Amino acid sequence: MGPMKRLALPLLAALMLLAGCSTDGPYPKSNPYEQCENLGDRVLIDGVLVSCEGTMFTPTTVNDDDMLDPKFSAPDEAEDKTYALGIVKPEETAVSSGFPHICQAWEGIQNRPALTELERLASHDLVISTPHVLNLGWVRTDEQPYTGLSTTLEATWNGSPSVKKDALRELNPNFTFIVSVFYREGSFVGDEDTITDLWKFGDYPPDSPFWIRDEAGEPVPAFGRDDNLDGTIQPEEIQLVLVDFRNPDLIELIAQKALILDQSGVVDGIFLDWWSERHRTAGSFLDWEEFYMTLEEEVEARLAILRRIRELVSDDFLIVGNTNQWTAPLSAPYMNGMFMESVKADMFSGYTTQELQTIEESLYWGSENLREPRVSCLEGWRVVYNYAETDHDAQISERNSEENQRQMRLVTTLSLTHSDSNVVFGADPVEAHAHNWYEFWDADLGQAVGPKRTTYQGIEGLFIREFTNGYAVYNRSGSVQEVTFDREYQAVSQAHTGNAHLVPNMDGEIFLASLQ
């Protein structure tokens, strides 16, 4: 691992302007099907001719007659013990039902290659991704080739969505699946004359009234990725452009998509990115010098989206918004959870005390004020040592550094002491949401029995919470602190057993009555 490389990155400055900005957008970048190297490829997989569809290269059958409506049921001939992707029904669950609860946002675990796809997914209690993860896709036809306009789902070639969901629930009864739905942006394709493949069309027609255009009549860049890793976003790296989510027709379309996802019987809720009540987001991703809505217009449009969705979907259908490290009080009556993609002022160092305090207050607020049932996720960003590193083994090693393991414990115990939420650690602006699985997360604290946001012996910045199997302690007090118990507990990260334990500053620990 090389020395820390500090850059003055316009990209990071842009990220810090935003509220609700996902560094990855709604698409995973990994490709589980090595044969699918390019969009539109037709390859033979397990004797089935498939075409590589969508940004994630998820194959779907060339034969388009497998339309299932409204539920996606397992085939009658499926054997009881045969599950999606060849997984055999387990005799017992593979994941503890106790805390900590871990979440996945698009990309998953990188450091456990021996795990199957289902095992990787089921390691998480909450997964946010595209419908393809559960073998679902939005229907497009020659007459209607636009994903954004589609309000019909179909099963992909991979297998039955309900069978896969059942298999995931067998492995982890807590497993919850949230589908990302565009409302602020979309994929734009201006020249359709040479397109021969459905998956190459944009989300809406190029002349759609949904697109926001600048004074020159050009679509406004909404999101991009630093593909060449030079620290800035160039026009050719823009992936999505802005849409006018004030448009009543677009609001209705988003709500209808939510309804059909609810009616699928396998999707538990939807995810809405860039969910801000305090910052404008309808600006150019390249410069952020001009905005196309007022903050009041953006907030009212978001609330209109929520109200319409709630009119259509079932009461327990989940809505999760990406609020970054802030709250969304006007959305609280309608929204069940926050994805707290907690960006930092400096990607090359850990969180500051002030940043942690903001996260604490927002996370606790959400755990008390959002609509029930509540399901949130706190995502901590790792300390980046080499911004331009693309080797996965090096990224895994970087996330596993002593400093990043300490940051992981800090973020994990912050979540445990201030909420009943899910947590994940490891993201950054380059690798987005891929993460390591840490042994620290294997600890089974059981269920929370103590109050949230409780200080230990009144020490400011030192928090403790009791669980059925032990305690979580989170320390940002400014110095190392000793915690004592009336019986022996084992510190998970230190493997030290005793009545008294030291917890370093800017660190956290899980204490178990016995190893689980």
> What is the averaged pLDDT score?
85
Our measurement of the CA-to-CA distance between the termini, rounded to an integer number of angstroms, reads 34 Å
In quaternary terms, these chains amount to single chain
Strand order of the largest sheet: 4-5-8-12-13-14-15-16
Task: Work out the strand percent.
Answer: 15-25%
CATH class division of the largest domain: Alpha Beta
Tell me the number of helical segments per DSSP (H or I, 4 or more residues long). 8
Radius of gyration: 23 Å
For this structure, what is the CATH homologous superfamily of the largest domain? Answer: Aldolase class I
Structural class: alpha/beta
Helix content: 10-25%
Short description:
By secondary structure, the protein is of the alpha/beta class.
